[in-house]
Amino acid sequence: MTITQLPSTHEGERQLFPTGDLCRPAGYGPDIDVSGLVDSRNGLVDRSIFTDRRLYDQEQARVFATSWLFLGHVDQLQKAGDFFTTYMGEDPVIVTKDKSGRIRAFLNSCRHRGARVLRADYGTTRAFTCTYHGWSYDLEGKLISVPNEDGYPAESWDRSEWGLQEVAQLDTVLGLIFATWNPKAIPLDEQLGDMKYYMEAFLDRDSEGTTVVGGITKWVLKGNWKLAAEQFGTDWYHVNMSHASALMVLSPTGKGPKAEIANTPGRQFSDEHGNGTGFPTHPKSRFDALPVHQHYDYQALTERLGEARVHGPLTTGHATVFPNFSYLPVNGSIRVWHPKGPDEMEVWTWTVLDKSMSEEVRTAQRLYNLRTFGPSGIFEQDDGENWSEIQAISHGWRTNTIPLNYQMGMGSETDDGVYPGSTSALYSDAAGRRFYGRWAELMNTPAWHEEEQSR
């Protein structure tokens, strides 16, 4: 892979290349062609995609502004006026249920001077009121109160034009809420495609659906958000090495898992939308928390989901829905990797359980999730250390000129006749290659808002 560089604006500063004039609309930064930075066909990635601030700014405008993004779980909104706040990329948003029961999402920014109109993480309210000048909005985002409104010119002032900015599209799937700023985005079901089959193995085990317990756990990590999203989509390879001590602690003998478990067979799914999941297919792959394992009737699950899903993605696996939503079925963990600049991410995690679980089973799964993949979890800390280590050295000049290898499993992708879509061996970078391929495709495609700006 050849890495081409822009002329430096400062001596010694590494620059990425464009394919022409810097012609993006004002306010969106340079239009940087990333074709030389991601070579999916040959499995090579330039690590500047994790460190360059201008690439980060461009992915906010072209990846996060155009994609379907995870917001939360429907169980977080029980009645009209319930709300929670989250992010879409770096944009703060409010998610609420209006008086008609419709779930809505708005940019959490007052139309007057731009302050947030809601600063609480969650709660119940009748209106969203900015504490700066007092502009107030109802649950449908309409501006309903303006102090000293008679000071605005009657001939040009129209309150109805100054409501909160609402997302272009919002949809739910399997109890999860997604939204996009992109009015031209394909439907959520189409974006998920075959990925939904694998998600159902986690989120459709119970006819009553799922619920969330324990609130949202949040922490900050040094590392680019893509490192986490990529790993959860494609990387079973790191498990035996990175998590060796944790596997020893969890094994009955204290010596680690048996060889047939450590080197389990499995499959990895990936698609052209950047979604990916991997899972063992060992016949004894079951839930790790004993009360959870004992809760399930595996025969009933087989009748509901089919044998392939029960022997595969039902339990121990990993998955990412592009760009930054991930989950772990065996732990009941769902998570989003919020970008906070090229060198930092904020991790938000929920514990998701089947509604029919007893309180004892719920507690067991919640505690198992916290012990393994909470901020102090024995697996979670290993992952965070790896991502922070990669980020810490990637700003070095020589380091940042050497491409990374994503060639494992290259050419092994196939339609295996068992699992839908393109799958490869469990130990593979296939989903990683497609994740970065989708990222590069979006980065090189003018977004809907750029097309509107150019008219």
How would you characterize this protein structure?
It comes from Microbacterium fluvii. Residues 68-163 form the Rieske domain. Belongs to the bacterial ring-hydroxylating dioxygenase alpha subunit family. The chain has 455 residues and is of the alpha+beta class. It folds into two domains: 69-171, Rieske Iron-sulfur Protein, CATH 2.102.10.10; 189-443, Alpha-Beta Complex (Naphthalene 1,2-dioxygenase Alpha Subunit, Chain A, domain 1). 26% of the residues lie in helices and 23% in strands. The strands form five sheets. The protein has an eight-stranded antiparallel beta sheet, sandwiched between helices. Strands 6-5-4-7 form a four-stranded antiparallel beta sheet, with no helix packed on it. A three-stranded antiparallel beta sheet has the order 1-2-20, with helices on one face. Strand 5 (91-97) and strand 6 (103-107) form a beta hairpin. Helix 4 (225-234) crosses helix 13. The protein starts with 37 loop residues before the first strand and ends with a helix.
